[in-house]
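Lab manual, section 2.4: Encoding a predicted structure.

Procedure: take the sequence of the chain (320 residues), apply the prediction step described in section 2.3, and record the output as structure tokens. A sample record is shown.
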Amino acid sequence: MNKLFLFSTPSQAYIFSMQSNDFKEGILLLVCRKKDRSRILDHLSYINWKKIYHFNFSEKRNKFFVILKIIYFKFFILRIIKKFDINELYLSSINNYIQLITMCLFGDGGKIVLMADGMQQIIVNSERNEGIYSTRSLPKSFSLLGIRECSLTKFSFLTPYNLVELNDEIIFKPFTKKRVCNLNSSEMGFIGMPVVDLGIVTAESHIKNLYDIKDKFPDLNFVYFAHPSESKFVIDKISKHFNVKSLDFIFEEYVSKENNVPRKIISYYSSVLLNLNLLFDEFDINYFELDNVLRSDLNLKIKLIYNYFEKISSSNFNKF
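Recorded output:
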């Protein structure tokens, strides 16, 4: 019997590598773009993988191409499950189509574990404790391919966060603490999120919020750290007002490599805030609560994150 691990982004692999896990081996499936493959493998090189697979998939391709890829993947993943006698499935996201399909095909074949990925664990744990077991909906056409939606009543979380254990198993694996040298106390950093591209707030509202933050600390140099998913159109708008910095890797990794990092960090509800609070001791972390969310389907999920933030008892973690 073997464990199958699925990763889609370098950030998922980085967070996993920073936890005090004791995994020695397993089967690895990378569901990612080709350019992210080497970075994910760099973070996971300490594990002796029995076999490494790579499946490149994009939901943005035309429907016919997507269906062909899904048909191929169905038989591809079922072959892996059978060949290696997989009894434990470790997912890094259930918002990713391929990972969700894998979960549905795996079904009740063994233990299913959700690893840390942004704020997804916080939302899923909160929803499941309230009896909400549904996941992202699959296209109706998938059912014609023998892939049906699933909602699991039993789930496990491999997490560095303090989650509530009711119906699900919580496997707590904390971060390994690191210290940061030479933090810049004269600089303030805002961790960008694709809130405009996702239709959560307007660009005008977003920029107004940034000015409200900047104006409250006029003596601090304001730097906007762009999120990789933010479009060039949005970044160009923001850069007309603020100093924008784009990173080739996630902010937590940037902190580990750089010596001149802003001590004061602000964002809306980015997981960076939570991770910095757990990984390091020196930051002054603030969250800016959005009260003008445009998408009703995300409003409750965002509130669940803020509810979690409010319960954090740390002098370095506060509401803006």
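Check your result against the sample. The first strand starts at residue 2 and ends at 7.
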